[in-house]
Write a structure and sequence with these properties.
Largest sheet: 6 strands, parallel
Strand content: 15-25%
Strand order of the largest sheet: 6-5-4-7-8-9
CATH topology of the largest domain: Rossmann fold
Shape: globular
Number of strands: 15
Structural class: alpha/beta
Number of domains: 2
CATH class of the largest domain: Alpha Beta
Radius of gyration: 23 Å
CATH superfamily of the largest domain: Glycerate kinase, MOFRL-like N-terminal domain
Helix content: 25-40%
Number of helices: 16
CATH architecture of the largest domain: 3-Layer(aba) Sandwich
């Protein structure tokens, strides 16, 4: 097999996605015996006697919620009293006590609000002898959405749209969302109190912080209204956001609205959060698959993908060149990196952060021999496109120019999708049902001589 070819790198990416299959991760973490129920994942271990539980509820949402929910239902069986899960559009339906509500992403829709409302209602019924199992994955911030009192869905959508165009990082984005919501930033835990909560989290954020995953509906929130206001002011969009949102945040800063629940609040006394899967699982799978296929060296750069996609691309190409220079001539080196990049939208083109990364990498590699890069989102969706990402080699720009394309113009206009579509270099998987952020894979031929 050509270890620089698109089929090889796509195979490594498929291995990453398979390793993060949500159902398998839930089945590994959540176990039922004749008399008990246990949760073991991410350094967390907890157990309960089934005879001590009155009812078990299932709630949650995200891009992986369908597979997580089905796995949990098979484990729990008849013990599930009721549930509501927000799932991607096209994956709803089903019979039984658990409702699968189709919800929007990346912007919330009516399904998102209906799912959030039904979850709050269900959790408010839970008592101290009940267990709520929350299944949370990336995308949950948009798919479980209930604007705070006085803020309309349209108001909130304006703010989120402005933030998306600015390419703010996930921490900033979630700080804003938590303070415009009835469910985020620990408020779901408040609704469930005094019931016990087990939150099973499939992480799509660097560092796997439970308070960041899907905006932390069951986790203490370390952020404040003052920080939310500061972000909006420093990003220079404070005057552009709806008056109702400014009034809401100002009321929070002034102490006229309660803050999100913080660490030490009694509502978290019976809440257990466990990360069942993350980007690292996907990267480990890439490394193992590359070694099986004959790569001489396979190395992981964990948490590498942070910040602007095009800047990440330049740094990754530099790492790949250094790895090539240090490897014996003729041997193939594979590097894998993970994280979540951002894109500041300056043009009116069509693309996503992985396709923008790939285009920037192609420009950096222009004319280079013996090197290839693939960048893709593990959820199978990159921005508002039908692709997961794209693949490039050192001759990508030359092929593009021969086809009448100008790589630099497409990058400047954030127009990566038409560029790669014309070259047949898109990576297209369709929605994968999981989400552990982005995976970048680079392969290069060693050049060091004895």
């Amino acid at each position: 097999m050509d270890l620089l070819g698109k089929p090889f790198l796509e195979g490594l990416f498929r291995a990453a996605v398979a390793a993060a299959e949500p159902g398998a991760l839930v089945r590994k973490a959540l176990r039922r015996s004749a008399s008990g129920l246990s949760l073991t994942a991410g350094g967390v271990s907890s157990g309960l006697d089934l005879d001590d539980l009155r009812k078990i509820y299932l709630v949650g949402g995200g891009k992986a919620a369908r597979a997580m929910g089905e796995a949990a239902m098979r484990i729990l069986g008849e013990r599930v009293a009721a549930g509501v899960l927000a799932v991607p559009r096209g994956s709803g339906g089903g019979k039984g006590p658990v409702r699968f509500v189709e919800a929007g992403h990346p912007l919330p829709d009516e399904g998102s609000r209906r799912a959030a409302g039904e979850m709050l209602s269900l959790l408010s019924e839970a008592g101290e002898d009940d267990l709520a199992i929350a299944l949370i994955s990336g995308g949950g911030s948009a798919m479980i959405s209930a604007p705070a009192e006085g803020i309309t869905p349209a108001d909130k959508e304006v703010v989120l749209y402005l933030l998306l165009r600015l390419g703010v990082n996930i921490a900033e984005f979630n700080t804003i969302r938590k303070h415009l919501s009835l469910v985020k930033g620990g408020r779901m835990a408040k609704a469930a109190h005094p019931a016990r909560v087990w939150a099973l989290l499939l992480s799509d954020v660097p560092g796997d912080d439970p308070s960041v995953i899907a905006s932390g509906p069951f986790s203490p929130d370390p952020t404040t209204y003052a920080e939310a206001q500061k972000i909006l002011i420093e990003r220079r969009i404070w005057p552009d956001i709806p008056r109702a949102v400014r009034t809401h945040i100002e009321s929070g800063v002034g102490g006229r609205l309660p803050e999100t629940p913080k660490r030490g609040d009694s509502v978290f006394g019976k809440v257990t959060c466990a990360v069942v899967g993350s980007n690292r699982i996907a990267l480990n799978a890439v490394k193992a698959a590359a070694e099986r296929e004959g790569a001489a060296v396979a190395r992981i750069l964990p948490g590498f993908l942070r910040g602007e996609a095009r800047e990440c691309a330049r740094a990754f190409v530099s790492e790949l060149r250094a790895a090539s220079a240090s490897a014996p001539a003729g041997q193939v080196v594979v590097l894998a990196a993970g994280g979540e990049m951002t894109v500041t939208v300056r043009g009116r083109g069509k693309g996503g952060r992985n396709q923008e990364f790939a285009l920037a990498a192609a420009i950096e590699l222009d004319g280079a021999e013996g090197v290839a890069v693939l960048s893709a989102g593990t959820d199978g969706v990159d921005g508002p496109t039908d692709a997961a990402g794209a693949y490039v080699r050192g001759d990508t720009c030359a092929r593009a120019r021969a086809a009448g394309l100008v790589p630099g113009h497409h990058l400047a206009g954030n127009d990566s999708h038409p560029f790669f579509r014309a070259l047949s270099d898109l990576v297209t998987t369709g929605p994968t049902g999981t989400n552990v952020t982005d995976v970048v894979i680079g392969a290069s031929v060693g050049t060091r001589r004895p």
